[in-house]
Amino acid sequence: MLTNTDHRTTGLKTTSLVVSAGADAVYLLFMVLHLDSLKGYMVTVCGWLVSAVILFNLIGIETQQHQQAQANTNQHSIYTESFYACIIAAGLYTLSAILLAVYMLSAKAKTFTSADRRLIECTSIVFRVNIFVIFLLGGAAIYSSIEGWSLIDALYFTDYTLLTIGIGNLTPQTHLGRSLLFPYATSGIVSLGLVITSMTSFISRIRDMKLRHIIQTARQGFSSAAVLENEPLEIRFPKWTEIMELHTIKSDFYRRRRWAELGLSLIAWFLLWFLSAAIFRQSETQDDWTYFVALYFTFTSLTTIGYGDYYPQSNFGRVFFVFWSLLALPILTNLVSVMGDVFHTWLKYISSHVWRHLFYKCRTREPHEHECTRHSYITSNVPSGLGCTEHTQVKSRMVSIQFQLQLAQEIQSLLSAMTDESLEHKEKICCTWSRIIPLLHAGEYNASCSSERTPFVPPKSENEMMTKFMDPLKEPADRNAEISWMLTLLVEKLCLDLRNELSEIM
């Protein structure tokens, strides 16, 4: 169809572009300056909706002109690439405005912390996506001028170039265009890599945030139990059962989340593959594409193989290819990330299983199991079962020094374990915790008899202490991370004991 390109239509297109660009600029400005993001979101939503309304009006005008032209000439006419691009742009504006409005309302209804909101809003990924879009559109404008292509054809070229699909039906024919390809493709692919890295990091941080909220709920249960047992919350350390429960919560969460993400990613990928094949089959009927040929083309494009023996030639096919390939980017990124995580977990499980069965068969068994270890420390010189008046002041001082020395030795042992990667020193975490827990709770049995002992510093609230000790970001993502958590608890215990001793001297 020959579209109407009068001044009114051109002015509406320009107005839509300016309004949407202004809405994006306001959105980025509020995020960079850390202003009230909800107000910025409101302006952005309104701007996107206005742009969508303008584009939908243009679509209506073009459709009406198309019908009139067919009625007057009795000839079959087709829509241009710009018409289909206008439809997709209007749909994206509307969808983005709806999603942003839903988040804005949920942010008002729910009590997100400032850190959680910054994590969800993810300024870095927004900037990197905008930079990548600038590479796409800017490169399309440059190559359109150099090679004499239409803007949509140039965008189609830059899309399959930066996404490394390399279909190859459009290639630079001028010396300048080929020369510019070296810096343009290199910088564009680097920008794409930064977007993929941000997406992977964003998914991981959202997962950790959800785990943090789950553990906070469990922590509230620990606090309620401590209140019922009349425990002194200002010096409360995690118990053995609480440590094990946190481990169970974390492992169950990651196991369920891992398989759920894998299933959803596979479903999304197959839907994208099969549905897009049906769409391309319909759009390329003039070239006699069968559904199998469309499946073949979409598979080689999704996997960036890009043989180039089949490629879209219709106006709608090229426009849809640009939108579809960019939509496939986050889906494929998430699928690869989840599959890598599942494979890594499976490989780690197999290697640990083999190591347990082979390594322990080649060496004598040492009495380091947590039942024996826990008993040896509980019945040692730790003053957890000592009475208040049974020993002299000298004996009490000597026992206190012995306990502090034991804490320091355990800290030194954990520091050595973090730097020693040999298999002989990779003790089971449960055995290490069985030594740590009695040390953390030493002296609590006679706490009621020594009520005159008060901390040298003002006591922390229960929420601050438990947040410091049980924050999931300090929970073990690996062995060294968990040892770091143990070290934190031991240092806190040592400091607490020294403060109590100093308060007695004062």
UniProtKB/TrEMBL annotation:
<feature type="transmembrane region" description="Helical">
    <location>
        <begin position="289"/>
        <end position="307"/>
    </location>
</feature>
<keyword id="KW-0813">Transport</keyword>
<keyword id="KW-0812">Transmembrane</keyword>
<dbReference type="InterPro" id="IPR013099">
    <property type="entry name" value="K_chnl_dom"/>
</dbReference>
<dbReference type="Pfam" id="PF07885">
    <property type="entry name" value="Ion_trans_2"/>
</dbReference>
<keyword id="KW-0472">Membrane</keyword>
<keyword id="KW-0407">Ion channel</keyword>
<dbReference type="GO" id="GO:0030322">
    <property type="term" value="P:stabilization of membrane potential"/>
</dbReference>
<feature type="transmembrane region" description="Helical">
    <location>
        <begin position="125"/>
        <end position="146"/>
    </location>
</feature>
<protein>
    <recommendedName>
        <fullName>Potassium channel domain-containing protein</fullName>
    </recommendedName>
</protein>
<keyword id="KW-1133">Transmembrane helix</keyword>
<feature type="transmembrane region" description="Helical">
    <location>
        <begin position="82"/>
        <end position="105"/>
    </location>
</feature>
<keyword id="KW-0406">Ion transport</keyword>
<feature type="domain" description="Potassium channel">
    <location>
        <begin position="132"/>
        <end position="204"/>
    </location>
</feature>
<feature type="transmembrane region" description="Helical">
    <location>
        <begin position="319"/>
        <end position="340"/>
    </location>
</feature>
<feature type="domain" description="Potassium channel">
    <location>
        <begin position="269"/>
        <end position="343"/>
    </location>
</feature>
<comment type="similarity">
    <text>Belongs to the two pore domain potassium channel (TC 1.A.1.8) family.</text>
</comment>
<dbReference type="InterPro" id="IPR003280">
    <property type="entry name" value="2pore_dom_K_chnl"/>
</dbReference>
<feature type="transmembrane region" description="Helical">
    <location>
        <begin position="40"/>
        <end position="62"/>
    </location>
</feature>
<dbReference type="GO" id="GO:0005886">
    <property type="term" value="C:plasma membrane"/>
</dbReference>
<feature type="transmembrane region" description="Helical">
    <location>
        <begin position="12"/>
        <end position="33"/>
    </location>
</feature>
<dbReference type="GO" id="GO:0022841">
    <property type="term" value="F:potassium ion leak channel activity"/>
</dbReference>
<feature type="transmembrane region" description="Helical">
    <location>
        <begin position="259"/>
        <end position="283"/>
    </location>
</feature>
<feature type="transmembrane region" description="Helical">
    <location>
        <begin position="181"/>
        <end position="203"/>
    </location>
</feature>
<dbReference type="GO" id="GO:0015271">
    <property type="term" value="F:outward rectifier potassium channel activity"/>
</dbReference>
